[in-house]
Amino acid sequence: MTITIYHNPDCGTSRNTLAMIRQSGEEPVVIEYLNTPPSRARLVALIAAMGIGARGLLREKDTPYTELDLGNPKWTEDELVDHMLAHPILINRPVVETSKGTLLCRPSEKVLEILPNPYIGSFVKEDGEVVVTAR
């Protein structure tokens, strides 16, 4: 199975996750979801695969989350998905899909849980934090 990352190149966590995937020896399919949002069916499938519910995928920071009152429990799963489709910036990132599972990779080293080869040696994140993996 191909590795797919739903990526925002303006996000440091997303850039770090992509770099970790590449350091593991894989070249993923990169979907810049702000330019190419997933279909409703795809978004619902990703949420189901992660087992987190739509609310678990909502991004609050630097989005219309507050102005849309999305913290209000009145919203159904379908309505939250509708909001994410209307405003893709509400989809938290990065989401990575591999043969070992699908995860919202926050922090970026969560990607190691689902990479075919999680032993990437030493990796330095953009903020200087070092992530070390060993067999």
CATH topology description: Glutaredoxin
Order of helices and strands: EHEHHHEEEE
Number of domains: 1
Alpha carbon gyration radius: 15 Å
Question: What percentage of amino acids are in beta strands?
Answer: 15-25%
Strand order of the largest sheet: 2-1-3-4
Helicity, in percent?
A: 25-40%
**Major sheet:** 4 strands, mixed
Q: What CATH architecture would you give? A: 3-Layer(aba) Sandwich
| Total count of strands | 6
The CATH class name reads Alpha Beta
- End-to-end separation: 23 Å
The general outline is: globular
| Structural class by helix and strand composition | alpha+beta
* Number of DSSP helical runs: 4
| Mean model confidence by pLDDT | 96
Spans with pLDDT under 50 lasting ≥5 residues?
Answer: none
The CATH homologous superfamily corresponds to Glutaredoxin
